[in-house]
Amino acid sequence: MDLVQLLRERRSIHRFEDREVDPDLVAELLDTAVWAPNYHMTQPWRFILTYGEGRRRIAEAVRIMKEKREPDASRKKEVGEKFYNKIMAIPMLMTVIMQESQNLIVRQDDFAATSIVIHNFSLLAWEKGIGLTWETYPWIHEPEFREAMGILPGEKVLGNLHIGYPAAIPQAQPRVPAAERITRVDRA
Ligand SMILES: Cc1cc2nc3c(=O)[nH]c(=O)nc-3n(C[C@H](O)[C@H](O)[C@H](O)COP(=O)(O)O)c2cc1C
């Protein structure tokens, strides 16, 4: 697939086939994805791949969080179970973690660089027929999740990528033509 087609045809995928994703393939793709521009060459990222029985670790943490935060006591179990099952239906989750610099400028540049790694990975995966959605639901920042995944102080979670072979590919969401957002400056 050429790059133009890859960029235009990639979609965020929410429904997956019940099919495993090879973690060695994901590791190989990541090894290319990390060739992102990175101003300070801090390479601040790390990745946790969760799949198979490992998913129970995230699913349990989510169940606990959702039960704890559900105000209606009679619905706690049901809500917890719903989120547990949602996580278990995702073939693989990749938690993307960034070491947070104390320096604001470095931290912002690092956030940009890590985001590029994520999109690089997304395109490389798409080329292999693997889809994903970058998810930033609030509970990735909750202590229950951080503890379950061994996320250290000073590390920021950029998201969970939900990864798998697409069961459905959503319609494209149209983009505003870039021409409408371009200002041309060609004279003094
Ligand atoms: C930083 C970031 C966070 C996102 N978080 C979510 C999310 O929490 N849930 C979700 O369904 N999609 C999330 N998305 C995916 C966007 O919703 C998606 O990219 C957008 O709808 C355009 O669809 P497309 O990726 O198929 O072109 C996120 C994307 C980015 C870049």
TrEMBL record:
Family: Belongs to the nitroreductase family.
Keyword NAD part of the UniProt annotation: yes
SUPFAM superfamilies: FMN-dependent nitroreductase-like (SSF55469)
Alphabetized InterPro entries for the sequence: NAD(P)H_nitroreductase, Nitroreductase, Nitroreductase-like, YdjA-like
Annotated ranges, domain Nitroreductase: 7-165
Protein name: Putative NAD(P)H nitroreductase
Cofactor entry: FMN
